Request: fold
Amino acid sequence: MNDFKQKQIIIALLNHGEKLSFKNDNVVITDKDGKIKHQSTCYRLFALMIVGNISITSGLLQRSKKFGFSITLLSYGLIPYGIWQYKTEGNFLLRQKQYAYKSNAIALHIVQNKIDQQIIHLQKRRDKPLALTQAIDKLRDYRGRLLDESLDFQEILGVEGVASRLYFSHMFDNIEWNGRTPRTKKDITNLLMDIGYMQLFHLLDAMLNLYGFDTYKGVYHKEFYQRKSLVADIIEPFRPIVDYRIRKAYNLGQINPDDFDFINGQYRLFGDKAKPYTKWLLEAILEYKNEMFLYIQQYYRAFIQEKTIGAYPMFLGKIP
Reply:
């Protein structure tokens, strides 16, 4: 824990003329006039996310291996186009256990935790109309159904689906919204959710790789070509962090429709206009980075030691 608190995740939004380089084992970001905007030691670097254009050098990749940090490259539209992942190599025992695991117990546990967090984030709202309290009670009912260990994957999916539809209808009842449709970007809210979830996804992906997990082998999401199913599993209890921050942004007037472009039936967010949105979404996610790391650490220990489901982590929010 103490080690991780001293680690840094750098998100570099590079404007025209800005450069990222290394000097004496420090990562350095300079503006177009050569003035240093950021400098920090590689010894404390956990992950480097670069938004914009950059020339990758062998020196950058060598330092990634030497200091054990991951590099994620994102377009100005925040679409990842390259990942140089630092891995814990040689943890074959962990991967053997991953490939042999067939139970749905962890999947049930994760979805229970997801509904717990949906309830917690709905309860954060200051206003508590009757419809909201009734929805929370209904979510508790759905959560209770997941105590049945005989449920199969399709039944778990069914409970998660109806719970999520109910949750979203109350999380975003402060705007006109037709519901969650991943990756369609058909409205501003869905676009911002895609961005926030993607940031969260890459952060958790980097953390899982610290332990040597095969992130393509999940316990809930089925394997599919190039799908990181385990990351898609682990992200579930943390998604409401993004949802709640977007709701808050609407209430604070931080979302301006004029900042978004509508191209080929999809909303897009580019360049300088993207920066404030990226910033407040990242701030909301990184507020919980210690809790996320501890979650994955406990998950690893429970999984590698084949402990009972009671030993697996539950994300409960901020650690006091």
Notes: The chain is about 45% helix and 15% strand. The CA atoms of residues 70 and 85 lie 5 Å apart. The chain has a mean pLDDT of 89. The radius of gyration is 20 Å.
